Batch of 4 targets.
Target 1
Amino acid sequence: MGFLDLLLVALIPVIKVLFITGVGLFLALDRVNLLGPDARNHLNKIVFYVFGPALVATNLAQTTTYESLVTLWFMPVNILLTFMIGSALAWLLIKITRTPKHLQGMVIGCCSAGNLGNLPLIIVPSVCEESNNPFGESSTCFSNAQAYASLSMATGAIFIWSYVYGIMRSYANNYKEAGLTININSSQKNSNSESDLETCREPLLPSKDWVAASDEYSVQQQPHGNFETQEKSSALRKRFQCITMTMKKINLKEVFAPSAIAGMVGFFIGTVSPIRQTLIGADAPLRVIENSINLLGDPTVACMTLLVGANLLKGLTRSDIRPSIIIGIIAVRNVFMPLLGIGVVKAAQHLGLVGTDALFQFVLMLQYALPPAMAVGTMTQLFQMGQSESSIIMLWTYVVAAFSLTLWSTVFMWLLF
């Protein structure tokens, strides 16, 4: 296929995304108010807890086998590489633009975490639906595409709510310890644990000044023969309390998101032959369960894309964020990451780590070219830090992604064929 033919194949899915995103943006307008803040909140919960996990579980259960794991194992590694490379580029961007401290965690989140959920679920299967797609027969391509995109969504959820959440929370804590006013957790549920954390001032690895002060106090208050032992015991006890308070702040429900758990269930069903034969297939005795869950998963893509459009409405507000930061994030996500992604996937192909499936390699490359994950905006709301700035960044990065995704998808297919 020629470059222009591939460009047309790549353009159609992006147009679909733009159209549905535009509908979501329209429904969120104040004059329409069908996707206002309350409606978005309820719909997002339904997608997060019901529709998304159902889609992930059924797609992986239908298409994953024990033999396919030989190839699929590289996708979690590839996603981890996208986060690490994005974080390194974000660190350089922070140094170059001198990003304010309260925005540094958000910049790292935007550069490291791509939208690994709904965009691959739309773009990759839509490419397969085109009659002149380069990946072979449409039905087989479509089935594999949904499996790859579902695995991307499930794995991405784990990394976003562990890796990115941890980084952004760490930057928020450092900003607070510097004496700036940040309300890390505004929920009434965690107010008691937050007040307990306020009393935990000693660092896990104490500074020289803290050690010197504690030594001086111990010399004055304790007998010469016992002060050293009691000082060590007290320090260990305080550090253990700090670690305990910190662990209580980690929300395992977010780290192990429902889509991630559903992915594990889908893998288990697909790879264990007796269970697979019971649930999956036209002759399976319990196929009604699989069919029902499949129906629940069907609205996922449309609802998620409508929510993306509705959330972008907040980016139309004014903010004091410097244009250089926005341009830097756009450059990282739309120029440097895709170029490095080509190198990573080509190197993995040369080493025989990704098999020969061109569609799988296309998905791996695509993961480097996606705009920032919407979950980053959610985290800024959790930490009450950089909400308006993140909305503007999301708006501009998704506007640019409408063009860059088309171009990079074309380039990826051109390199693979």
Target 2
Amino acid sequence: MLENPPLTNLQTRDIESLVHPYTPIHQLKSTGTVIMGRGKGVYVYDTQGRAYIEGMSGLWCAGLGFGDEEMIEAAIEQMRALPYYHIFGAKSSEPAIELAEKLKEIAPVPISKVFFTSSGSEANDTQVKLAWYMNNAMGRPNKKKIISRIKAYHGVTVMAASLTGLPSNHNGWDLPVDRVLHTDCPHHYRFGIEGESEAEFTARMAKSLRDLIEREGPDTIAAMIAEPVMGAGGVVIPPKGYYEAIQAVLDEHDIMLIADEVITGFGRTGNWWGSQTLNMRPKTISAAKQLTSAYAPLGAVMVPEDVYQAYVDHSATLGTFAHGFTYGGHPLSCALGVKAIEIYQERDIIGHVRKLMPVFEQRMKKISEHPLVGEARYCGLVGAAELVADKSSKRSFDPRNGVGPKTSKLIEENGAILRALGDIIAICPPMIISEAELNELFDRLETGLDQAEAWVSTEALRAA
């Protein structure tokens, strides 16, 4: 099998026409691209006819898989009725109203109003603007800084990318912007001190946050934003008690907690929300991705009544609430959000996730024993395998060796699509996956890991 077979005409057209996100675009003419033609269930099929288990739900988002007929019919029905309208200037549509009401019903904390965006990045960007707007309304013009965390991922717009705590999202982009602070990443495996228990590590994380707040001044900090489980930063799952400890520090200093539920919302962790699984008590919530099972773009910001009343007060002062997006509350997207939530409820998708969780856990534990894997971590139906050069010392590979991307490619050649986050292999299958399909996905993952282990040994990449 050729390492890089000749490009097809469609691949050539693709490379000449598109800018590919999160891709080494300087290599595309030699590596080529994979072009998908169709999908059904948990499988996608490229234009060459090859089938893959989509083990990442696309980008953590296609929870209902591909080609769901109820979702398709809902889209067709809405397109025929009202293919587009906005919610500017006191206009609205039935799908936007119905989806907002459904979100309020299933929210993990009391929610009064929903503001729609087109994506998770826009939702998190809006969270910052709304926090600033609220504090201006409350006569606190200096309370504007936002705390995020190292290795967090909150999107790619200018502010959301600033909140993101990954060097690749800052280097070359003149980011982060002012008013953004980053505290420690709550990953005990990678950042715990030798001999430090998880409880001691959690206490240190809380102290570090407190020190940051007191150093900056609590009167200058509006909010902290956090993913219940950190996604693109490596599927980092905080130790038990972490959010309770963090919440106590935030409450003491009158700093609200924003939950970024873009990945963890709608059943992924075995509850409607990751906040419920991880014992978070957020003030406001961002949602997207599985909100429509990715059948159309949509994001949402969910706020309680007291926060909304601050917006009302400032609107009265300024004359209007001057924020919004052309496609926020798009009737097609909202109709698909309504249908997705109905399907989650009627098919008991959360119950299905919980049924599969022991299988997922068992297979992840087996993955953790692989010679190439330092830690395998998981929560619900999302997990990651961190690849290391030495298991006992946790020593990482030199990033220039590209062990993670190579492993991901080998897994792909075995018919499964997973995602390399550096040298971390993430797994996030559609929530509709069957037990047999889940086991097949892990079988293909294990085969790819074995091949990667052989490649690492051949290339002598374990040398210190």
Target 3
Amino acid sequence: MIRLVTCFLFMCSYLVYSLPTLSRMKELDKEIPVGERDRIIHKMPKRWSRLIMKITGADIQIKGQELLPEGPVVFISNHEGNFDIPTLLGYVDKPFGFISKIEVKKVPIISSWMEVLNCVFMDRKDRRQAIKSIRDGVELLKEGHSILIFPEGTRTKGGPVGEFKSGSFRLAKDSQVPIVPISIQGTSDVFEKNGRLIKPAKIKVTICPPVDSHLSENVDIKDLAVQVRQIIVDHMD
């Protein structure tokens, strides 16, 4: 309970503290190269994410950073729990935005930071809006930004990796950037498996070898979803 309260209070105070930086990030010079600009913008969210995970007491091990290619990528990860995002934001050495459910857009400050991070809000219940979100994501990738997707669509809470919805793989097909699969294990042990209390846990993140954009171009997106899911499962213990 103490960790849960500490996490909550830290998040609230840090978000308020971040407002001046958020304002500066919105005004950042558009002439700065995309990669450099993204790294500047991600400094505070990265620091915030690492502090959050430190408060949880999590022991985070990450491997495969050397496999990260230059330029934009589509990160594809399984989705265990609520602490997936701060774990990946804090410890993956490549800035990225991510696909989020549209309801988060109503959350003050957090949604503003997500917009600056080039996140895409998607309403899965509205097919037309979902298609538009995919197109927006493709444009961001073509501009040089990276994007993370959880194609299961919901948290497994530590259960088996679910089926990957193929629609989101259109991002990689249409933008022709590499797919970088990520296997994440243990985040559900921090929260979801503890009666909604926060406890220390061991988290393992594995960055898998990229799937070349030319390969994804020549594979049906349903087959691509199955292949990438299998890569992620194969890199789990």
Target 4
Amino acid sequence: MSTTYFISDHHFGHKNIIDFENRPFSDVDEMTSNMIAKWNAVVRKEDKIFHLGDFSFLNKERTQEIVSQLNGYKILILGNHDRGRPRTWWLEAGFDEVSEYPLIYMNFFFLSHEPMYMNKQMPYLNVHGHIHGQKYEGRHYYNVSVEQLDYTPVSFEQIRDSVVVDEEQA
């Protein structure tokens, strides 16, 4: 049985992100190899993974090399740093599906790169990235930026179960 995973904001090839977000890597090569290893430690070839944007700052050839090393059926929701390239660029780089817009998953989860405004009465959860080490308060948001997850994709079940725990504690 396959599992569905989520993650965002790898910023492959972005040297300055190491300092901006205080990432524990000495250079982009170490960051790249570490993030690929952490992805493949949990995601199997038969799994599905949603990448919620800001995947790579590299050229298509180098991005393709990275994508080809990553397990799973890969769906990219374009982030602010991905939008300079058309959907076709990302498909040619190896993503199985690419969306320019947020998606709704399982009729309850809004998948987006940037956090979406969620009214307190709304029964939905916004799974997002973009804000890296920051976190929105409240039960309506789940940040899947790599900095929040020790660079390791998180499963749908982990997200779902954390929402149930939060509601029981509320």
